[in-house]
Amino acid sequence: MIVPRLQEFLAQHHTSYMHTVHRTAFTAREAAHEDHVPTRAMAKAVIFVADGFFGMAVLPANTHVDLHELREALGANTLRLASEEELANLFPDIEVGAMSPFGNLYSVPVYVDARLAAQETIAFNAGTHRDLIHMRYSDFERLVDPLVVNFARKC
Q1: What percent of the chain is predicted at pLDDT more than 90?
Q2: Can you tell me the distance from the alpha carbon of 15 to that of 36, in angstroms, rounded to the nearest whole number?
Q3: Virtual CA dihedral for 35, 40, 41, 47, nearest 10 degrees?
Q4: Is the pTM of this model over 0.85?
Q5: Do the beta carbons of residue 42 and residue 58 sit within 8 Å?
Q6: Torsion sign over Cα 13, 7, 18, 99
Q7: What is the pLDDT of residues 101-144, one digit of tens each?
Q8: Residue 148: in which H helix or E strand, if any?
Q9: In b/e form, how buried is each residue of 66-98, taking b as 16+ CB within 10 angstroms?
Q10: Cα(40)–Cα(61) distance, integer angstroms
Q11: What is the pLDDT of residues 18-56, one digit of tens each?
Q12: Helix (H, G, I), strand (E, B) or coil at 127
């Protein structure tokens, strides 16, 4: 099931997407494998705290966040990953670890790695560990208006 907040937002903006369901997967790589999506096009959302403010880093599943690069790109003095408790408080209607890259729906600014921005289509969690949404990156960008920066490193 797509989280209602996300589903309503996509409907309000008349956005084309495809919804798929797969076996439970707890990592973006596992979800990509289960849904036969290239890991370079599977978006994962990582929540961080920079100088006391939350942000969402969105990057391909075949990469990891370089926290130093992200901190430098944001011009932040401090940066750390959010705790599971913070995730549960920020995203109360989402399974912990299954955030969609629509941080804007939760007043969390979104930063996308340039590698993901280069993809024609992307897939991402729809709020559960079983549901994925597939859509054009250009539609995602139009709806979220993320800042595109370089902060991912190949795994």
Answers
A1: 97
A2: 23
A3: 100
A4: yes
A5: no
A6: positive
A7: 999 999 999 999 999 999 999 999 999 999 999 999 999 999 99
A8: strand 147-149
A9: bbeebbebbebeebeebeeeebeebbeebbebb
A10: 6
A11: 999 999 999 999 999 999 999 999 999 999 999 999 999
A12: coil
Residue 55: how many other CB atoms lie within 10 Å: 21
CATH hierarchy code of domain 4-154: 3.90.960.10
Q: Would you say 50 and 74 are in contact if contact means Cβ atoms under 8 Å apart?
A: yes
The answer to whether 114 and 148 have CB atoms below 8 angstroms apart is yes
Q: Is the pLDDT of residue 67 over 90?
A: yes
Residue 130: per-residue pLDDT: 96
Q: Where are the domains of the chain?
A: 4-154
Look at residue 155 and tell me whether its pLDDT is greater than 90. Answer: no
- Sheet strands (E) in 53-130: 53-60, 63-65, 79-81, 110-113, 121-125
Residues 68, 153 contacting (CB under 8 angstroms): no
CA distances from 133 to 16, 21, 109 (A): 10, 9, 20
